[in-house]
Every structure is written in C-alpha cells, then in structure tokens.
Amino acid sequence: xxxxKVLLLLLQIIHTEFHENVIKCPIREPIYSPYKxxxxxxxxxxxxxxxxxxxxxxxxxxxxxxxxxxxAMIITKNYQHVLAFIFAVTEINENPNILxxxxxxxxxxxxxxxxxxxxxxxxEFFSTQNTFVxxxxxxxxxxxxxxxxxxxxxxxxxxxxxxxxxxxPQFSYGDFAPTLKGxxxxxxxxxxxxxxxxxxxxxLQLLLHFRWMWVGLMTMADNIGELFLKNxxxxxxxxGICSAFTEKIATFNFFHEFFDAQQKWKETFLTLMQSxxxxxxxxxxxxxMICLRGLLRQGEHxxxxxxxxxWVMTTLLxxxxxxxxxxxxxxxxxxxxxxTTHSHEAxxxxxxxxxxxxxxxxGDYFIQIFWEQVFGCSFPNSDFNRDSEETxxxxxxxxxxxxxxxxxxxxxHSYSIYNAVYAVAHALDAWQxxxxxxxxxxxxxxxxxxxxxxxxWQLHHFLRNISFNNSAGESVHLNENGEFLMGFDITNVxxxxxxxxxxxxxxxxxxxIHSDKHFSIDEDVIVWNGIFNQVIPLSLCNDNxxxxxxxxxxxxxxxxxxxxxxxxxxxxSDQTDMDYCTACQDGHYPNKDKKQCIPKAxxxxxxxxxxxxxxxxxxILSSFITTLVLGTFIKHxxxxxxxxxxxxxxxxxxxxxxxxxxxxxxxxxxPDKVMCLFRQIAFGIVFxxxxxxxxxxxxxxxxxxxxxxxxxxxxxxxxxxxxxxxxLCCSFIQAxxxxxxxxxxxxxxxxxxxxxxxxxxxxxxxGSVIMFxxxxxxxxxxxxxxxxxxxxxxNLPDSFNEAKFITFSMLVFCxxxxxxxxxxLSTKGKYMVAVEIFSILTSTMGLQACIFFPKYYIIxxxxxxxxxxxxxxxxx
Length: 876
Description:
Layout lengths: L1 H16 L18 E4 L3 E7 L2 E2 L19 E2 L4 H15 L10 E7 L4 H10 L18 E7 L3 H11 L6 E3 L16 E3 L4 H15 L3 E7 L2 H16 L3 E8 L8 H17 L4 E5 L2 H12 L5 H4 L3 E4 L23 E5 L7 H6 L11 H10 L36 H24 L8 H9 L7 H4 L3 E3 L5 E3 L10 E8 L5 E9 L9 E3 L27 E5 L8 E5 L4 E2 L9 E2 L4 E3 L6 E3 L1 E3 L6 H26 L4 H4 L3 H16 L10 H35 L12 H25 L3 E5 L6 E7 L3 H24 L10 H24 L3 H31 L7 H8 L1
Parallel strand pairs: 2-5, 2-6, 6-7, 7-8, 9-10, 9-11, 11-12, 12-13, 25-27
Antiparallel strand pairs: 1-5, 3-4, 13-16, 14-15, 16-17, 17-18, 19-20, 21-22, 23-24, 26-27
C-alpha cells in the first residue's frame, strides 16, 4: 500500500512537471463498453458502483485469470444507482438557475464487487478517456471535480487511498465506518449515509423497544463482519441483550468453493432453525443477500420454521435478487425490519424510469444487459441471455418488475447519490459566485474555461456546511465533518404472492436531533409475519417473568436465560422481568399475587367488632356475678359461713374481683396516652390486691390452726392487723414496682406496621418490657406462695378451712397466667390484647368459682347447712 502511494505521488509530480508540454490527443471515436458510461460535459463527476458479481475458475497461474462473463450474476437492482446519477446530472443541466451556460458530465465505471478493481477505476478517473495512462490526460477541456463512490466501507476506504492524493472530493453513499480508519485519515471524503456507529444505537433502540433480549447475529465471514460483531456485541451486552448464536455466512470467490460454502450454509441453517431466538440481526452488503437466500434455500422443506423469524437488516443489506432467484419466494422475509438510509421521492424520477428504454439511452450499453436480466429476455447477438426464448422489444415496463429485481421508488442509496450530485452543483455555483465576474454574454466562453482551471481542492471550502433544498422538497445540509445530516428510515417489508414486496416506513432514527427523541417507531402499522397473528413477537431465552416474580440466574447459561421465582414474603414486583423484588413502603402490604402494594387497614380492638362485643359481655357478666356474690354475702353477713375466715378480708377480695374484669375496659378501643399509662398499672395493682387477700386468707387458716394448740403463742398473730398488714404490704410492693415503671419508661401509644402484614396496629407500647414482666412476675410470685401455703394446709382439721378451695383457685390462676406468656408472645395486634383480656377474665372467674361458689351454694340453695351445729356435725 505504501509503495503504491509513492508510485502515485511520482506519477502526479511527472504530470505536473510536464503539463505545459502536453500535446493535444488526436480525436478518437469513443469506444463504448458495457461496464462504463461516459457523457461529456464541461465539469465531470465520476461514479463507481457494482452491478455484476464475477467468479473465476480455480487459479492455476498458467494463464491470465479471466472471469466468465456469461455466468456473471447481475444485480439489476443496483442499476437504479446509475440511473439516479444520470437523472440528477440531466436535471441540473436543464435547470437554468444552477450552473447556467455550464454543463455537467458524468462518467461511470463498474466495480464488479471487487476491491482490487476499485484501484483500477480510481486510476481511470485520471486517465484520458479510453486510454489507461494514469496522470496523463489529453482531453483537458473537461475537468473531473468529484467522485461518487460505491457501497461498502472497504470500497470507500480503498478509493479514498487514491483520491485523497489529489484532494478530490469523494462522496460515499454506503457505510464509511470510522472504526476501520478515522475520518481524519480521509479529510476529503464525504459521507452521504450516517456513520455506522449510529446504526448500532438504532439497532439497540429497536431491540429495547420490542424487548427482544435473545437475538441471533448473522454476518459475512470477512473483516467487515468481524468489525460489526466486535462493536455491536459489547453494546448489546451492556444493555442486557444476549446473542443466542453468532453465525458467519460463508462466501465464495471461485467456482470450486461453492460446494464448500453450500455445506456451511446447511450447518448455519440448522443452527438458525434450532435456536429459540425469534429475532435475527443480519449485517452485510449487497452480495450477502444472495448468500442468505441460498442459505435459506437449503431448508426449503423447513420454510415454515424460517417464517417464524423477525429479520432485522442493516443499511447496506438490500433485498436483491439475481436471475436464478426469479422463481424464489420472498415471503420468508415478510415482516422484516430494515434500516435504510433516509430517502424521499425526487420529483420527476418516476417519469424518468417509466420512459426508460434501451432505444433511447445512447452511450449506455449496460442498459441492454440490465434489460435482458430484469425481464428475462434477450436482444439479438446477446452475450448474456443466449438461451432465452423471449426477445426483448424495448417497450417492457419497469413497474411490472418484482421489487427484488428493481424498485420504482427511489431507494436510500439512490437518494444519497442524487443529493451528492446536487451538493457538487451547489458548491460549484457558490465557487462561481465568489469569483464575482461579470455575467455578460461576451464572457460566457471564458467562464466555461474558468471551470476547466478549477482545481478539485478549491471545492472543499464550499462543500463544508453547504445547505440547499432539493427537488424532493427536503432541506439537505452537509456539516463541517463531511456528514450529511440525514438519519435512517426504519422500513417494514410487506411481501406479495407475485414474489415482490413493498417497503412500509414505520419509523426513523436521526442521531443529529438534539433531544432524547432521536428514535421513533410506530408499532401499530407494522405488518408482522402471519405466524405471529399481528401480535408483537417475543424473542427471549425463556418466557417473561410476570409481575409477582423475579429473575433468578441459571447456572452455566447466559444472563438472558433465567428462572422465574416468586417474590419473598413482604415484597412485590409490579413489572415483567424484574431483577429483584422490592419491599412495600410503610403503611402498605403486598396483595395476594405480590403484584402491587395495598394500603394497610388501621386496626385496634373495638367495641363494634364481634370479638370486642363478646369480651365486653363477659366483662359485664363477670362483674355482675361478683356483685351478686358480694350482695349475697353482705345480706347474710351474720351467718357462720360468711363469718368464717375473716369477713372483712372476704369483702376486700370480692371488691378487688369486681374491679379485675373492669380493668379490661382499658384494653378495648383506640389506644390513647391515658389508656396506655394506666391499663397495665391498674390490672397489676388490682390483681395484686386480690391475690394478697387470698394469701392473707391462707395464712389466717394456718395461724388459726396453730393457735388452737395448747400453750401456743400464735394467738397474738391472729386478727385483723395481721391480714391487713399482709394485704397492704403485698399491694404496696406492686404499687412501688408500677411507680418505678411509670417514672423510668412508661407505656405510650404506638403504631405497629410490621407485625401483621396487612394491618397497621394501633397499640400501647409497654415502654419497658422488663418492668411489664416484673409486674406479672410479682403477681405470679404471690399466687405461687398462696398455692404452696394452701396446699400444705389443705388437710388441717378445721370446720372453716378454705385451704382446699384456695388451692384449686391458685392452681387455676397460675395455669392461666403461665399459659398466657407464650400465647401473648405468639400473637400480634389486637389478638394480643384479646389474649390478655381473656386471661384477666378467666383468672377472675376461676377465683370466683373455686373460692365462692361452694359458699354461695350453701347460702342460697342449702341454708340449712349454714348453721354452726351443722358445720360442727360435718366435722364429726
């Protein structure tokens, strides 16, 4: 490459040095070639593109390698690129407002999809017509001012290697990937198509829009394909998209390689069909489609499976066909989405194509080859379609040709060529205006000669930041970096039974829009493949995780493959494919399906609910029974059974048992500060008084028995003072504990949002849990002492002995409160309050039943037994 550039520089120096001594060439008749087109003008614009795929036999190096032109594949669709070029030049020459009195000429050379041929074409631009002598031009009355390059970044780069030596403007209407060589390496090149790096972003936005996270990648097995994968795969990875497979479509340059390529196509087709990915991204250039259609043809019996793919095509990959595809269906590409260079129909282009005829196109010998290939006919003495049974009349209509062979609407590449020609014309016009010469008729000829002296490098100043309006009604702008500020069109392929298709524009992507909205697509107008029933296809490694579930990675699988796991308790996922579940904010809880958070209901134990009403009934009933017993005892206060075991102590016990159930009212209703302060305190003190009375009665029984023994000193301890002291002392200790509790860490109203998942519980926070259990522990201690003393005194020989009844009562009391602790700790919310109320009521009624029911039975139902002599007789 370096040696070639040095040689070209030497040739340029020789050309410059001897330019003054050039002898005018003799006038020659132009020799027309089917691979060239030349239309003379004062200013020449060159174009090189490829329409013919040539293949060679295996090289033996015994003879010069020559292609078999008869077996060449003609890409008839690319002929529109040449026609758009001719149409633009013709339109400018007929327009008196652009370059008046100066004509544009056009020169076209075939590239044969061969990168080496590009160098030859480049040197022909600097040679005399029909004479290949680089840097030696005899026809100095014309001046080559720019070149429009063919498709593909490799072709554009190779052509720029030559043209940049002459500072000749080059317009590339294909990709010009800066990742191969930076734009700074080619300062005289202009991009008609957006940079490929913008296409990566467009593909990403498209996949994210449809949530296609599991996609296949197909590209040609060449450097461009490697570069495409190298740049795109990391972008997809960073955005959570995995490649299900990466296949490189095999190519062939020689006939003997075709069978090897065909075998590789079968393997690629098998991988394609076995993959669960419904979206396949295909990257390549025009010949790629020929290989792709051949690849898909390998599974002609499995076409229905291939229909279940959404093909995403890049800009250079066009839907083309050659003669061998004439009977092949294009329905396999139904619903495909293609990125294309932005296009718009140029005014008059349709009429230009409809009036096209081989008889009217002088100097264009390729049109006959095109005509034969596109219509399947032949002209007399044809070198290409000798075996065709139909004869071309020249009156065939292009609008009847299926789109894979030729499109009547202007394609994106043709539109880029059209705009490139106009950009050169407007730059020339601006250069002429800058000369500020007189426009008199006498100087018309001198003005034309001025264009001959125009050097290509002088045009760059006017090409940068040029703006103009084309005949399509669009504003075209070329920025200072040599980029035309046009984005991509996203087109939907709609196929027809006649093996044709229609491009439906469904979106666009313009990286030069200075906003977040540089990508847009209308999914409602997309016509999908019939297998999807107009439902947006899915392309995932596995089904979406629905709301209520989250993703869990599968071992040894790509991150796009995962299991769906239900959200843990207390968390939700409200979108599909959530990476993790989120906890509800305070005051909310997950619904049954764990899809959304529901506001929690504020609850507390109320009088209106059945549980609260039942407890209130039992509270009233318990207090009523105690009142009834107390009234009965007061009424029969002089009877022996009431007098026994200290009548005043009995009354004190009954009064405390009356208040015990009433304490439960402090536990029902919405907790407030006063309620929380006093409910546990009142419960603890009242019950301590009751248990202290029981303890005093038990000790009285023991002391009374001991005092009856002769010579006993215990008589002085028997009496009201002793029982009163026991009750007051025991109650005071509990009151002291409660006082310390209130002084250090008193209870307060609180809100419990977490104990019950679906409710916000209004409760009383005990403040110090230790003090709460101190109160319960002290009360339990008194009950336990009473139980032990009563148990030991149960068999004492006394007619008025209550020890047995007290033993049973304390057994019930201790059992209730021992079972209360674990039950209390295992319940939450209002049910915790209900447990404590139930324990209060149960222990109260247990004391009433065990201690007072036998006495009440005698007083009310057996008054005959409530006599002293009867009690003494029972003792005997």
